[in-house]
Amino acid sequence: MAACKSHWFLRTLTLRRALLAAAVGTLTGCVVVPADRYYDGYYGGAVTTAPPGEVAEVVTVAPGPGYFWIGGYWNWVGHRHVWVGGHWQAHRPGYHWQAHRWHRDRSGWRAAPGHWQRR
Question: What is the C-alpha to C-alpha distance for residues 88 and 74, in angstroms, rounded to an integer?
Answer without folding.
Answer: 17
